[in-house]
Design goal:
By secondary structure, the chain is of the alpha+beta class. The chain has a single domain, classed as Jelly Rolls (Sandwich). It is 29% helix and 20% strand. The protein contains 7 helices and 11 strands. The strands form 2 sheets. The protein has an 8-stranded mixed sheet, with helices on one face. A 3-stranded antiparallel sheet has the order 8-7-10, with no helix packed on it. A hairpin with a 4-residue loop joins β3 and β4. The protein binds succinic acid and fe (iii) ion (FE). Succinic acid binds next to β10.
Length: 291
């Protein structure tokens, strides 16, 4: 089951030893969560007003697109928008510094994805089963195919009231894949092109994405699996930071409020051991290329 490996960094730009770097990359690629219990993201006094669910309106998060610097999902007025944007950009930059120090091996391949601010309480949110992240799942998104690239996410819990962010961590990716693959259907010929042409997907949905989406959905739809699969609960304390390959690690977020999350994409060939990528695991189990 998923391990949580701890590093003692207290600053985002703190150098770590070679041994720690080797431990970090190996642990992440094997499917551990890398936790920095003493690494907190500071919110300035002038930003305190953003610690309110109202900032995300009816939605669950505000997100910043690195391609154009635009915020979506926020309901703050124009006067406050720039400061909210700055706070999120600061988190994006901090997470990047952390990766440069801890995972220099990835530096050349990393692509920055969206930055997300999550001021909404997770517990009790009403949503469809497919979007319900309180159910164990591996990350895969219908409109954003990765074509095999990895999804590495950095989270930090900024709860001002000391509330932990409570996750469940499930079985190994290979366990998930072996369980559901035999009953999954292959992609329909030509569907990837149609979805791409209609703009439903941001790029072509590879066979890899097709299988990952099905794994995501099958896990979430299977209530017996949700309650019976081997799993552990983990509390991420306020003031802590963690990173994890969420395409590999089965996870569910049960409760908690006020977090930042930064997504990074990493080509499989930038990994220390590409054979541990979900792409390579699925290819091995299915006996064919998927991206
Ligand atoms: C998720 O990726 O499933 C949600 C994680 C979180 O917001 O803590
Ligand atoms: Fe997720």
């Amino acid at each position: 089951m998923t391990d949580v490996i701890t590093l003692s960094n207290t600053r985002w730009d703190q150098q770590v030893t070679t041994a720690e770097r080797e431990l970090a990359v190996d642990a992440l690629e094997r499917g551990s969560v890398l936790l920095f219990p003493q690494l907190s993201f500071r919110i300035a006094d002038s930003e305190g007003q953003f610690l309110s669910p109202a900032v995300a309106g009816e939605g669950k998060n505000v997100s910043l697109d690195p391609a154009n610097g635009l915020l979506s999902g926020s309901s703050v007025n124009d006067a406050d928008l720039q400061r909210l944007q700055n706070m999120m950009k600061r988190f994006a930059a901090s997470s990047r510094q952390l990766l440069s120090c801890v995972l220099p091996h990835y530096e050349a391949g990393l692509e920055q994805g969206r930055t997300s601010f999550r001021p909404t309480e997770i517990a009790g949110r009403r949503t469809s089963w497919r979007k319900d992240d309180t159910r164990l799942h591996v990350d895969s998104f219908p409109s954003s195919p990765t074509q095999g690239n990895r999804i590495l996410r950095v989270f930090t819990n900024v709860s001002p009231r000391g509330q932990s962010r409570n996750w469940r961590l499930g079985e190994s990716f290979e366990g998930v894949a072996r369980r559901y693959l035999p009953s999954l259907t292959g992609p329909i010929w030509g569907a990837d092109r149609v979805l791409d042409l209609l703009g439903i997907t941001k790029r072509r949905r590879a066979a890899y994405d097709h299988y990952m989406l099905q794994l995501h959905d099958r896990m979430k739809a299977d209530l017996a699996y949700q309650s019976q699969v081997a799993q552990r609960a983990f509390e991420f304390q306020a003031g802590s930071t963690w990173m994890v390959f969420t395409d590999l690690v089965s996870h569910a977020a049960m409760s908690g409020q006020y977090a930042f999350e930064q997504t990074y994409y990493l080509p499989v060939n930038s990994m220390l051991d590409p054979s541990r990528a979900p792409l390579r695991i699925l290819e091995r189990l299915l006996g064919r290329e998927l991206a």
